[in-house]
Specification:
228 residues, alpha+beta, Cyclic Phosphodiesterase, Chain: A, five-stranded antiparallel beta sheet, four-stranded antiparallel beta sheet, 33% helix, globular, A-kinase anchor protein 7 isoform gamma
């Protein structure tokens, strides 16, 4: 009996979890938001210079919708198609209105990841959009098993980025380092683009991730989707 159960479990897992190498993201490009984030990063750096390596460059700022493991060119093509197909669903959710993403205050996960929070109100709409994109990827039978529940957050510092810090005894980031900004308004970004980004390919000259494909949505949606 036990053996049968084990087999059943194996089958339900479908395939071994591969490490994600792609992610679907909403880029954050509003100057006010990025400037505020740089201010916070500078403040943290002046108080704790060792944390420099744990700071994420503002050129890479984004909200992650899902992560995926795309093992072959074929799967990358499917993912590009899935993203393009999601455009119609996303536009149906937006109904021609702008979605303003307002960022306010700072939050943390385990005191190891520090991020700018997004207003609850704007999150609801974004969650529906994330769900629509996710559905398109699932329909294409792509491996997005590494994705966590969608919780929009704008990460600007993470300890795991600088493994050496752990050896120096940095296990937690003290909130005193950024308390001046803990309840600050960072700015508002109008949602207009979703990217399929590669984690391991060389970044673009702008400093942002390599994109396999981007779709433009909302009021700026007249442009055709861009592809590398």
């Amino acid at each position: 009996e036990d053996q049968k159960e084990d087999l059943g479990q194996e089958v339900s897992k479908k395939r071994p979890r591969e490490t994600p190498n792609y992610f679907v993201a909403i880029p954050i490009t509003d100057d006010q938001i990025l400037d505020r984030i740089e201010d916070v990063q500078e403040l943290i750096f002046t108080k704790e210079p060792d944390l420099l390596r744990a700071l994420l460059p503002v050129q890479t700022m984004h909200l992650t919708i899902i992560v995926a493991h795309l093992g072959t060119e074929e799967e990358i093509k499917k993912a590009v198609l899935a993203l393009k197909q999601s455009k119609t669903k996303v536009e149906a959710i937006l109904q021609g209105k702008d979605l303003n993403m307002t960022f306010h205050g700072i939050g943390q996960f385990n005191n190891q990841v520090i991020y700018v929070k997004m207003c609850e109100e704007d999150q609801k709409m974004l969650s529906r959009i994330a769900e629509a994109v996710e559905e398109c990827f699932i329909e294409m039978n792509l491996d997005i098993s590494g994705s966590k529940d969608f919780k929009p957050h704008l990460t600007f510092l993470k300890l795991s980025k600088a493994p050496r810090l752990k050896r120096k005894g940095f296990r937690k980031i003290c909130s005193d380092l950024y308390k001046e900004y803990e309840d600050s308004y960072f700015g508002t970004e109008v949602f207009s683009q979703i990217d399929l980004c590669a984690m391991r390919k060389k970044k673009q000259e702008s400093g942002y991730y390599y994109c396999e494909c981007s779709i433009i949505v909302g009021s700026g949606g007249t442009e055709e989707s861009k592809e590398q």
